[in-house]
Amino acid sequence: MGLFKVSAGARGGPSLDRLGDLLVELGAYPSAAALRADYGHLTPVRLA
Question: Are 19 and 7 in contact (CB under 8 A)?
């Protein structure tokens, strides 16, 4: 689907491993529409 840029810090471990797995799952979607079809019920969080 595209490029994801994530700041994960310097720590490793299971949380970082799961983050990598999640990015692979999200990156496998063929389009943003397909991603929204599965995750459209989530509310975006504005961080700034």
Answer: no
